[in-house]
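To the structural biology subgroup,

Please find below the input and predicted structure for LLM class flavin-dependent oxidoreductase, which we are adding to the shared reference set this quarter. The sequence is reproduced verbatim from the submission form. If anyone notices a discrepancy with their own records, reply to this email rather than editing the shared folder directly, so we keep one authoritative version.
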Amino acid sequence: MIPISLLELVRVREGGTPREALDGARDLAKVAEDAGYNRVWVAEHHNIPAIASAATPVVIGHIAAGTSTIRVGAGGIMLPNHAPLIVAEQFGTLARLFPDRIDLGLGRAPGTDQLTVRALRRDPQSAEEFPRDVIELQSYFAPLQPGAKIQAVPAAGTEVPLWILGSSMFGAYLAAELGLPYAFASHFAPDLLMPAMEAYRSRFKPSATLAKPYAMVAANVIGADSDDEARHLFTTAQMSFTNMVRGTRMMSQPPIDDIDSYWTEAEKAHVERMLACSIVGGPDSLARGLRVLVDQTGADEVIVASDIYDPAKRAHSVRLAGAAARDAAQLAA
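Predicted structure (tokenized):
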């Protein structure tokens, strides 16, 4: 089976509520767990009413409490928004509550607009400290050293796995230098996917954490019983990205029959470029698409995003993608 995981955006549906989105994320994680997924990750976003994952560690706790074996984590925490000590305390607590199940992916973008950056009391220069902050954070999860003046209670000794996330070359270089696993955000920024993968692998330095490179690639995966139905469901994601291009963050919308009536030609070109790393279709199309993605990128794992309006159809898509990951592995035989 191709290792597969779920990127949970905790999208609030048009006509729905944040509580429904949060409970839906928990329920979908259980579906993914039963379907054999490795992990489910939640991303930090701020000032976006359509996404209910701003308090990311709290959401992770909610999902972890509703599942039993699947790994749960951040994909990711935007580290420049936070003191490393606070992040260590939060994720160390999660690791004590859910042993050997917590991941911590780290990004250096703010995850929001510039006005909200100021509301977060974020120093605009804090992103420059990202490599140093990662190393500091790593030290808090290590076994407590004699004479240590500062402890991230109860993080010491939990060894929470750190990942570097990115959509540019910076994250690839840093993950390689620190010998950490790397996840590329190709589900919305695919342009540098292949150069980043090559740079990460060629520059990788083995570490106490990882002996060889481990790369995860993100893709939009929309599955249904037929290709036509999947393409219909995909219009929800296409509208979401069109709204992003327009600077309007709307709730997750029901699919429509004619996406060309929604966007302009210029918007279509922009959105299709952003969504280039997408696999949309029935079971056979999903298996072939996953196989091609892994063969082209050499990904060790695929993490899938699925902006589907109807919760039942989204759960069905997650199950189909899990089955496709098994079928895709057989296609290589």
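Summary notes: The radius of gyration is 19 Å. The longest helix spans residues 311-331.

Regards,
Lab coordination
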